Amino acid sequence: MASNVNPTVRRRRLGMELRKLREDKGMTAEQVAERLLVSQSKISRLENGRRSISQRDVRDLCEVYEVEDPRLVDSLMQMAKDSRQQGWWHAFGEIPYSVYIGLETDAASLRTYEPQMVPGLLQTPEYAQALIRGALPETAPADVEKRVQVRMHRQKRLSETENNNPDVGPLRLWAVIDEAALRRHVGDPQLMVRQLEFLIEQSQQPYITVQVMPFTMGAHPGMNGQYAILEFPDASDSTVVYIEGVTSDLYLEKANDVQKYSVMYEHLRAQALNVEQTRQFISGIIEQHAAKADD
């Protein structure tokens, strides 16, 4: 497999092309489903990129849409072939949030708000392990370790030298973190000291911006919970808002939804401590954790 083939992104691009062909033809998803003797939900999943699509599916849809340009058909067929290949994360086995990893791997920038924990891309291995064990107490030790390894591999996107997607370049990360995430004891106090020191260290990287939302700010636009906004280098790839769930995740791509979350994030950035204030604030919390570690 070519290193620059991202099956998740290929599915999204292919789905958008197929939806455009359907809309240009003036057909509804229900009408297409009736023609192909499949469910309407299948057509919808193919178009939103949440389901693998076979070359046979592409061929059948092109016939329904009366696509006459053989070059377009060949291009769509190749995208279908690429979309069924495996990304780097498949080497770790079944990953519940593999769709998100695929999007993050190809993203140019990521804006995230975390109210309860340090963002995964900024976690130390020890913090990640303690966090996963606490949040998912029934997870087998081997699966905990696998999740930690995946999390560490994802962090390569933040490095110019280790970036696993050189075609896109390092991921530009902007993280707003609630004060609660810094004070919550994940593991022992000494582990928290190392984690917060690492957070300050990472915040000094050129592609990473970290801001803290202090308790004293009171109510703010992030009170509804965690979310992330992923933007891509290719103009044809729509921005995605990702909201993590316990049993399923939510991906929002409609322009109106993306706009609302983007505006909300701008308010978060404006209300949070600036970069230098954030480092000083984290340093103060490190001292408090260190004092507890010495008790």
Automatic annotation (TrEMBL):
InterPro entries membership: Cro/C1-type_HTH, DUF5753, Lambda_DNA-bd_dom_sf
Domain HTH cro/C1-type: 18-73
Pfam family, any one: DUF5753
SUPFAM superfamilies linked to this entry: lambda repressor-like DNA-binding domains (SSF47413)
The protein, known as: Helix-turn-helix transcriptional regulator
Phylogenetic placement of the source organism: Bacteria, Bacillati, Actinomycetota, Actinomycetes, Kitasatosporales
